[in-house]
Thermonuclease family protein (Cryobacterium zhongshanensis), 203 residues
Amino acid sequence: MRRTKTFITAAAVLTLTLSLTGCQAATQAVSDLVGQAQQQSDTQAASPSEKRPATLRRIVDGDTITVEPSTDFPATDKNGTEHTIRLLGIDTPELNKMSGEEPECGAQEAANYLGDIVHAGEQVTVVFDARSDHTDRFGRSLAYLELSDGTDLAHTLVVEGFAEAWYPPSEPAPERYSSYASAEQASVAANVGQHAFCATIGR
């Protein structure tokens, strides 16, 4: 709303200029102003993904980790000891720790594999997707996680057959979803990881 008011005010000023300095100069000024407004709109629509450093604290399950609390990542637990991040664009079988039920097929294997490739105290990069919400209804961050060499952990889990490509049907597809889906097709075809043992992985 403020930007719209600014635009209208600027247009009014230019109208006054029109009567004082002539049509040609004022018309050019209006054209420039419209161009600037359009450029600002385009820049906002194509906002880049945000990247923030973090320190891994622990593995929760195959698609969820926690990091040390910081300015960028305030604590999400009652004790103020960690911030939870749900890996965006994938899903892994549930460990069912809260319900007390048996873990789903491949759940422990997915968590173990994730723990093999990233460790507590390791520096990671949290990448937020420009298309997706940054948090879910549980207060967890929704993001990609990359190692120092650029390895995308979610993509690796899919390639190795420990996760499936997934996003909520009611939400827009994350930017990396198509590459995850292609990786899943290949891992299913090759029968790698838990595809060799589980009827389904994730949802």
